[in-house]
Amino acid sequence: MRSIRFIASLITLVALWGVVAAVAHSSALPSPAAVALFIVQDSLHGDMAFNVGMSLWRVFASFIVAMGIGTAIGLVLGRTRVLDEVVSPWVLVLLNTPALVITALCYIWLGLNEFAAIVAVALNKIPNVAVLLREGVRSFDPALDDMAAVYRFSTWKRVRHVFLPQLAPFLTGAARSGLALVWKIVLVVELLGRPNGVGYAISYYFQLFDVRAVLGYSVVFSVVMLMIELLVLQPLDDYARRWRSAS
Amino acid sequence: MPDDGDLLLDVDIARKRYTGGQGDLDAIAGLRFALPRGKVTCLLGPSGCGKTTALRILAGLDRAYDGAVTPDVATLRLGMVFQDPRLLPWRTVEENVRLAAPAIDDTTLDALFADLALTDWRQHRPGALSVGMARRVAVARALAVAPDLLVLDEAFVSLDEQGADILRDYVFAAARARGATILTVTHSLREALQYSDIILILAPRPTRVLARFPFDAAPEVRNAAWIEGERDRLIAANPGLQP
């Protein structure tokens, strides 16, 4: 029932778009059919597959880097109060620095290359992951720590059976919000300094005032990201929280 | 004083002080007692006097104190039933017990679950259990490790009286049968008299032992009349005690 409502909602959105486009009758707002035709043509004969592939690679690489480093920082800050007091202001500064500034500085300092692009995206996401994971660690139940100590749980047993289950909802939450943030920043990074990718393509077609292509790329990339969210991250999140509902 | 036999543990907490923004607070000052092997020792004292603090020190959960617990409790098999069950909510009842007692064999575990009426619940997670059942799982976990020392920190609170009585009877009998030494904390004088070999009356914070009462009456002798007589004797000797 939930999925039927979800699909019905999307169909309604496309139908509304179609109606507005028909009424507007302007090249600034092409119809859903025109955009769909562009997607098919560019997928078969153009660079869409290559550009989407390049963007996906950047999303994947920067997501892994941001989750890895952000998680490590969050765990350390959550467990060590002194370090938290020292490092938290830095995290806060990074958290509030505009993505555009971080991207521009990375390109200036590291050059207009793939490494700088990945670093820029990761740097935008790391503070967010770190803060979420720090809160996760802080919310650990000390009573369970005591229980594990009394029953002499080994370090590995504690990590696996006490810490990770408490951390899992924060990890999956950071991953889900992370993906949503990362793919948007990837487009900005590509727009500013990469010769390919969805962000680059949108920038290119924007200069040609080809709204049909701009919308076509946006739709395809959004759908791919939505699929990753629905087919990978949401099931992972459900798995991490399964014990709350199924007793 | 009757012969206590050999001692399992000697507790000497000279001072336990909590430091915080609102000033220092002494929870324990000069708390000394011994736990005779195989006996039930009960700490009886007013709320907030430092009983749980003492248990945490004794269980090795708090090492920031002046004094010594000898031998180190790490050398003993320890079972502990906390004030709340402290089960892992993402693991089943059976997994909770097996994680604490990986060496337990299937037959012993089956018997333990059967004794505690948990057989039908062993594959359920704690979220599906009532408070009483969760407490029984905590008891099963503590007994499953075949403890040298079983620590009961107000383990029967928030249970209905009948359920608490049944569980108390089982826990003390099962622990005695396994040869465990028991240290229990309670507010209930009746519970203390019913099951204890030694009652230690504790002072309000900072706590220390005010009086020590050994009892050698057999369990079957401890009927309502006996408990009432002993209770009156204890209250007469310690007017601050709550009946």
Give an overview of the whole structure.
The complex is a heterodimer of chains A (247) and B (243). Chain A has 247 residues and is mostly helical. Chain A has one domain (40-245): Orthogonal Bundle (MetI-like fold), CATH 1.10.3720. Chain A contains eleven helices and no strands. In chain A, helix 3 (48-79) runs parallel beside helix 6 (114-138), helix 3 crosses helix 9 (198-207) and helix 8 packs parallel to helix 9. Chain B is α/β, with parallel strands linked by helices. Chain B has helices at 51-58, 93-100, 106-115, 131-144, 161-177, 189-195, 224-237; strands at residues 7-18, 25-36, 40-44, 66-70, 78-81, 149-153, 181-186, 198-202, 209-214. Chain B has a six-stranded mixed β-sheet with strand order 5-6-7-3-8-9, sandwiched between helices. In chain B, strands 2-1-4 form a three-stranded antiparallel β-sheet, covered by helices on one side.
* Integer-rounded radius of gyration of chain A: 22 Å
Strand content of chain B: 15-25%
> What oligomeric assembly is this protein in?
heterodimer
- Give the biggest beta sheet of chain B: 6 strands, mixed
The percent of residues in helical segments of chain A reads over 70%
Give the termini separation of chain B. Answer: 25 Å
Low-confidence stretches of chain A: none
Mean pLDDT of chain A: 91
Report how far the terminal alpha carbons of chain A are from each other: 24 Å
What is the CATH architecture descriptor of chain A?
A: Orthogonal Bundle
- Overall outline of chain B: globular
Outline of chain A, from the CA principal axes? globular
Features:
heterodimer; A: 247 residues; mainly alpha; MetI-like fold; 11 helices; B: 243 residues; alpha/beta; Rossmann fold; six-stranded mixed beta sheet; three-stranded antiparallel beta sheet; globular
